Amino acid sequence: MNLETKTLKTDVLIIGGGTSGCFAAITIAESSKAKVIIAEKSNIKRSGCLAAGVNALNAYIVKGQTPETYLEYVRNDSEGLIREDLVYTMSQRLNSVTRKIESLGLVIQKDESGEYVSRGVRNIKINGENIKPILAEAVEKTPQITVLNRINIIDYIIKDNKAIGAYGFSIDENIFYVIYSKAVICATGGAAGLYRPNNPGYSRHKMWYCPFNTGAGYAMGIRAGAEMTTFEMRFIALRCKDTIAPTGTIAQGVKAPQVNSSGEEYEKSYGANKTFMRMYSTVEENKRGKGPCFLKTSGISKEEEEELFKAYLNMAPAQTLMWVEKGMGPSQENVEIEGTEPYIVGGHTGSGYWVDTKRSTTIEGLYAAGDVAGGSPQKYVTGCFAEGEIAALSTLDYIKGRENVDVDNNEIISKLNEVENFLNEEAVIYSVEDIEDGMQKIMDQYAGGISQGYAYSQGKLKVARERIDELLELSKGLKAQDMHELMLIFEVVDRLFVCKILIKHLEERKETRWRSFQENIDYPQKDDANFLRFINSRYEKGQIRIILRNLVRRDDIYEHRH
Amino acid sequence: MSIAIDREKCTACGLCRQVCPGSLLYSDGQGKTFIKYPKDCWGCTSCVKECHFKAIKYFLGADMGGKGSTLYTKEEGNLMHWIIVDFEGKEKIITIDKSKANAY
Question: Could you please report the per-residue DSSP string of A138-165?
Answer without folding.
Answer: HHHT-TTEEEETTEEEEEEEEETTEEEE
